[in-house]
Amino acid sequence: MTTAERKHLDAVASLGCIVCHREGLGHAPAEIHHLKRNPETGVKLGMSQRASHFHVIPLCPTHHRAGGFGVAYHAWPRQFEANYGTETELWAEVQRRVEVAA
Ligand SMILES: [Zn+2]
Ligand SMILES: [Zn+2]
Predict the structure, then answer these.
(1) How much is the pTM?
(2) How far is the CA of 25 from the centre of ligand 2 (A)?
(3) What are the pLDDT digits (tens) for 41-93?
(4) Percentage, residues of the chain above pLDDT 90
(5) 35 C-alpha to center of ligand 2: Å?
(6) How many CB atoms lie within 10 A of CB 27?
(7) All domains of the chain, ordered by start, with CATH?
(8) How far apart are the C-alpha atoms of 10 and 7, rounded to whole Å?
(9) Distance 1 CA to ligand 2 centre (A)
(10) How far is ligand 1, taken at its centre, from the CA of residue 39, in Å?
(11) CA 43 to ligand 2 center in whole angstroms
């Protein structure tokens, strides 16, 4: 991991859960979620293309994996995106917030 990637991951994690912010739930300590698709090109990540440490969003444990159907991303990605916005939308908001904070 490069220094730039490490700095970006720290900045993203320190934002707190992006879904909690959007839902008006305030700041929640977050885990890093790597996107399934490159938000800039739409190419699926993970198979041939390694997930970039810049293509990440902060999610609290509940919204990441523990919250169950319709709440946790990893429980059911499509329902999560229907409820809270797509990965790409959330990622775009994370980029804006990191820039403001920098
Ligand atoms: Zn959350
Ligand atoms: Zn994840």
Answers:
(1) 0.91
(2) 20
(3) 888 887 666 668 899 999 999 999 999 999 999 999 999 999 999 999 999 99
(4) 75
(5) 7
(6) 12
(7) 3-101 (3.30.40.190)
(8) 5
(9) 18
(10) 21
(11) 17
